[in-house]
Design goal:
The protein is mostly helical. It has a single domain, classed as Rhopdopsin 7-helix transmembrane proteins. It is globular.
Amino acid sequence: MTKTIENLFIYTAVYTALIPIGLYIFFWKRLNKVYPLLIIIIYSLIEFLTNLVSDELRSQRSQLVILYSFFTIVEYALFACFFYLLISNIKIRKIIIVASIAFMIFSCCYFLFVKYRFLDSVPIGVETILVLTYAFYYLFEQLEPTTNSLIYQRYHFWLVAGIMIYLAGSFFIYIFANQVDNKTRHDYWVFQNAFTILKNMCFGISIITYTRNKKLPFKTNHAHFVN
């Protein structure tokens, strides 16, 4: 019975990625030019496919390592692009570009020269710190009293909330993944699944929020990108 519940929780974490994807398809005519949201949908699709492939490669450790390393780089790249579009400060956007180039180089070197058993924990840790930094700066910009709308009424807030919940919640689980035995990792992975579910739910809420509040103002100097 316990095993069945665990499997159900895992499948829920994987397939809730289809919630924002399905909503995006349903509201395609309203959302097809909302580029930050499109980036998140691409991310959700890649995450969903990665989880399906990883399940097939469960017994092939070397290929799993490659898959997870590739996903870390893609995940960071999409999140960095996402915040690049949301943040209006030109200096911060330039910092994102420089930090992203440095992260890509670092991640590739880590994959080529460092041996690890399960996850590329160090690149994931660096990714988390960088993306959370972008997210905190985004919140700083959005809290400035320049619009009449509440922050939770803006679709991009829910996207950022989902990213922050997922990355902050999974941080220590990913960091210690290579340093514990399989049983311990399995016992704590349930929390990672929980944070993934919350993230996907936030992404779905973002789409619903956008469709209901399409005309709410957005504080940025490149509003044509974010609609």
